[in-house]
Every structure is written in C-alpha cells, then in structure tokens.
Amino acid sequence: MTEQPEHRITQRGLWFEEFEVGAIYEHRPGRTLTEADNVLFTTLTMNTQALHLDAAWSATQPGFDGQRLINSMMTLSMIVGLSVSQLTQGTLVANLGFSEIAFPAPLFAGDTLYAETECTGKRVSKSRPGEGVVNLTHIGRNQDGVLVARAARSTLVRLNPEEL
C-alpha cells in the first residue's frame, strides 16, 4: 500500500490580490450577545456608562424597554472580529484607521449580531513593497436584519508572496 501525501489547508485571510472591490463578504456564524459579554467588556474598558452597567437605572430610561444597551465599542469590535477569519487572518499588516462609524439602532442582550464587509477600494502601496491598502466597510445587523453598526476601515494587507 502506497502512502498518500498528507494534504493540509491552513485557514487564512485574503491576500491583497484576492480582495474584490464591490464584493460583500458575509461573515457567519453570527454571535448572540449576552449580559455577561456586555458587563465584562464594559468593565474591562473602564466604561462606567450606566446604560451598560446599571439595570435598575436603565429600567427608568425611555426608549430601551428597561434593558441595558450593549456597549457600542463592543459592537464595533465584534463586527470587525467576525471578519477576521475570512478576510485578514495572517494577511493583515496593520489597521490604518477607522472613519464614518455609526450606530443607527441599539443592540441588547439576547440579540444576535451578524456582520458583513464590503471591499470599497484597494491600491498597491507606494511606500511599502509587498503590501497594499484595502478599504473596507463593516456592517452589523441584528437577527431581524436591522442595521446596528457601520464603520469604514483602511487596512494594510500583504500581497501574495507567490505572485511577487
């Protein structure tokens, strides 16, 4: 019996060349957020906003049905984080910046966050050989499809070394 060579595939993000401008990448599965997630993130980041921590106080505030809000910085982190394995795992060099960040609707404990990313542009770096700038727009929606977060992001991504 002849021994077959082992075929291994390592999960990674996309090389610069693989990003398609105008493509929307859906990141699945989503992530259902819990009260524990919210309290942990909020306390780790020293955000003392009562809307995230104080259930009794939050219950007196109009518009939130007595619920604590999920920390918007956790929402932002989560929509970026949900994209990593599909887009940037091992191929990202750096985040260059975020802009146009918006949270048009709230998230609450028990909501499930789904993320998608649109590639809005890319160019080969003039100053960093073997790397390129990729512009992304991350979008978060809850389980009902309601837009809860949006952020534009500029990244530095490696070119495929096999194509250099």
TrEMBL record:
It comes from the Bacteria. Residues 21-138 form the MaoC-like domain. Pfam families: MaoC_dehydratas. InterPro entries: HotDog_dom_sf, MaoC-like_dom, MCH/BMMD. SUPFAM superfamilies: Thioesterase/thiol ester dehydrase-isomerase. Belongs to the enoyl-CoA hydratase/isomerase family. This is MaoC-like domain-containing protein.
